[in-house]
Specification:
heterotrimer; A: 250 residues; alpha/beta; Rossmann fold; six-stranded mixed β-sheet; four-stranded antiparallel β-sheet; 9 helices; 10 strands; 26% strand; globular; C: 234 residues; mainly alpha; MetI-like fold; 76% helix
């Protein structure tokens, strides 16, 4: 079983600006191992930027990022070691276009984790099976549907055995009928105990899979709490406004 | 290094440099203008459905695109002498350059015309325009804009390769440069002047082209 | 007509040997020019302005002045400036390499920039170092965009290399001049030389059309994954 008392990620007073735009404003949060946190909020609220700061794809202006009780320095030369522990799934999938599905999953295993070809291939196959795509092993990304590509992207990130998975609106770029196949994979991952931070617009899914919901707006965390509380009885007015707009539109 | 840069030895030769530049520009202009004219006809020849025209034009274009300009000039200037035909160096160089430009611009114009989507042609016909009207009012203006950038590159290339004429003793800029260099032995200064002159002209050509392009960018 | 048959087979073989030397010289210039072009191309996209300006100035000057002039500069400049005597081959190679690098730099830059940023993000996210990201993700995809125009430049370089004859390097054009000075048959010889250049350049351009066109539409059939394809589709 998973040790529920281990805090995997801690963000302390994160500030970030792009030029004059103050995108993240004193953001703090913790994530406990084995739990799933869903971040919701309007576009421009800083959700994606926050996620990208956690695995150092963006640098922060001030504040601390602590992973497994070790402070992380996004500007250090060994930042790629951090990224072995933290996986990232992109909205645009970003599969390597010149490699087959199998090769996509094997590449980082071989050159970053230095696994043997045999080991990497076995792991790749087992992960493809897990996401239901082992028959597409020799296909190129351009030959797969969006939902299939995203599932491969998940397998690719899992192949690195990350402690934490970050997901940035991973179904927003998909045609509606392809969304559920991806969400099903994520739900299964949650059941298996994977620690995840998910930025999403899919409210039903967030409610279902997350143990905590965080609502962000204008670069701040406005409210956070259990899904039932946030969705049924939000404290803050802004939260209520946002949920009204989003849920009633459905 | 023990090499001091002294420009004073070169300055008396400045008029000679400018005269050489003038010749370079004249050769390039003639080559570009007459060459483009030939290119337009060659472009239509390449797309002609008359077999013999098509083949002959294609042979001309491919020959001049796949052989060096130097050899083309040599053939006219030295080669024809074998048959007791003497062509002056200036005419040989300009003729070779013109025929060269004709071949390259043929491809540029052909590509430019093809780049105008056939939907445009269909839309024009659908409105009842004749072939000629379509060509004049719809295809040509758009093709014209498309070919300006490659034509500019071609012009710059022609100007730079006019220097090859110096190898058959045409008194253009590079020839003058080598002369002055051998007289004064001030290699570095001489090349700075020549490079600056070439760069000024090529920069001006590029600038004119960007000004024109900017005026119609939509 | 004064067509004389006193041009011996040996003369033509001598000229053909010159053709081989031309190809050898141009291949070398392409190799070194690509390396130098890669360096300059990456400098052009650097975050350091000084690198951007230096590489920009290099490209501007080389592309704005005639090749013949550059060759003369190397020929006369190297002994005067650096007090070294170099062979005609080195002079020719340096001249052509410097020239090629300026043109290849733009091609390289375009190729590197054509790789979608998301791919680089994904590589970083998987823990790859900058070097791994470049070697395994950026370079293979950039090459696909770089090779077709680079090959086109190679063909042009073969023609432009005729100018090294002027600075005394014995390649195709120079060999032919030597034969002419002996046999006084300039038309016949130069015609033959033109034919040789034509065969090489036209031949290469046909190969280029066939190969690069095939490249674009070649998607490995999903139903036959065991068929390996030389170039992977993008």
């Amino acid at each position: 079983m998973v040790d529920r008392n281990l805090i995997l990620l801690e963000l302390k007073n994160i500030n970030k600006s792009f030029g004059n735009l103050h995108v993240l404003n004193d953001v703090s949060m913790t994530v406990v191992q084995g739990k799933v946190v869903a971040i919701i909020g309007p576009s421009g609220s800083g959700k994606t930027t926050l996620l990208r700061c956690v695995n150092a794809l963006e640098s922060i202006d001030s504040g601390e990022i602590v992973i497994e009780n070790k402070r992380v320095n996004p500007k250090s030369r060994n930042v790629h070691e951090l990224r072995e522990k933290v996986g990232f799934i992109f909205q645009a999938f970003n599969l390597f276009a010149h490699l087959t599905t199998l090769e996509n999953i094997m590449l980082a295993q071989r050159i970053v984790k230095k696994r043997s070809v045999k080991e990497a291939r076995e792991r790749a196959f087992s992960l493809l099976r897990k996401v239901g795509l082992e028959d597409k092993a020799n296909y190129y990304p351009s030959q797969l549907s969006g939902g299939q590509q995203q599932r491969v992207a998940i397998a690719r990130a899992l192949a690195m055995d990350p402690k934490l998975l970050l997901m940035d609106e991973i179904t927003s770029a998909l045609d509606p009928e392809l969304v559920s196949e991806v969400l099903d994979v994520v739900i299964q991952l949650a059941k298996d105990g994977m620690t995840m931070i998910i930025v999403t617009h899919e409210m039903g899914f967030a409610r279902n899979v997350a143990s905590r919901i965080i609502f962000m707006d204008n670069g701040r965390i406005i409210e956070q709490g259990e899904p039932n509380k946030i969705f049924n009885n939000p404290e803050q007015e802004r939260t209520r406004d946002f949920l009204n707009k989003v849920l009633n539109h459905k | 290094m023990g090499y001091k840069i002294i420009f004073s030895q070169i300055t008396p030769y400045l008029p000679a440099f400018l005269k050489g530049l003038e010749i370079s520009i004249i050769i390039s202009l003639i080559g570009m203008l007459i060459g483009s004219f030939i290119g337009v006809f060659a472009a239509s020849g390449r797309t002609s459905s008359v077999y013999i025209v098509n083949k002959l034009v294609n042979i001309y274009v491919e020959i001049f695109r796949n052989t060096p300009l130097l050899i083309q000039m040599y053939l006219l200037y030295f080669g024809l002498a074998q048959f007791d035909i003497q062509i002056s160096s200036f005419i040989s160089a300009t003729l070779a350059l013109t025929l060269n430009v004709g071949a390259y611009t043929a491809v540029i114009f052909q590509t430019g015309l093809n780049a105008v989507h056939k939907e445009q042609r269909e839309a024009a016909y659908a409105m009842g325009m004749t072939s000629f009207q379509t060509f004049r009012y719809v295809i040509l203006p758009q093709a014209f804009r498309i070919v300006i950038p490659p034509l500019t590159n071609q012009f710059i290339s022609v100007f730079l390769f006019s220097s090859v004429a110096s190898t058959i003793s045409v008194r253009e800029l590079t020839y003058i440069t080598m002369n002055v260099e051998s007289i004064t032995m001030r290699t570095f200064e001489v090349f700075i002047i020549t490079a600056a002159l070439y760069l000024i002209v090529t920069t001006v050509i590029s600038l004119l082209s960007s000004i024109y392009e900017r005026s119609y960018k939509y | 007509m004064k067509l004389d048959t006193s041009i011996y087979l040996l003369d033509w073989l001598f000229i053909l040997k010159g053709a081989g030397i031309t190809l050898f010289l141009c291949l070398n210039a392409m190799v070194f020019g690509s390396i130098l072009g890669l360096i300059i191309g990456t400098m052009r996209t650097s975050k350091l302005s000084i690198l951007k300006y230096i590489s920009g100035a290099y490209i501007y000057i080389i592309r704005g002045t005639p090749l013949l002039m550059q060759l003369f500069l190397v020929y006369y400049g190297l002994p005067v400036f650096f007090r070294i005597i170099v062979s005609a081959y080195t002079t020719a190679l340096v001249g052509l390499t410097v020239y090629a690098a300026a043109y290849l730099a733009e091609i390289v830059k375009a190729g590197l920039q054509s790789v979608d940023k998301g791919q680089k993000d994904a590589a970083k996210a998987l823990g790859m170092t900058s070097w791994q990201e470049f070697r395994s993700i950026v370079l293979p995809q950039a090459l696909k965009v770089i090779v077709p125009p680079a090959f086109g430049f190679f063909i042009a370089l073969i023609k432009d290399s005729s100018l090294v004859a002027i600075i005394g390097f014995i390649e195709l054009t120079r060999s032919s001049r030597m034969v002419i000075s002996r046999t006084y048959q300039p038309f016949t010889i130069y015609l033959g030389v033109a034919v040789i250049y034509f065969v090489i350049c036209y031949g290469l351009s046909i190969i280029s059309q066939k190969y690069f066109k095939a490249n674009r539409q070649d998607i490995p059939k999903a139903s036959q994954p065991w068929k390996t394809v030389a170039i992977k589709v993008s």
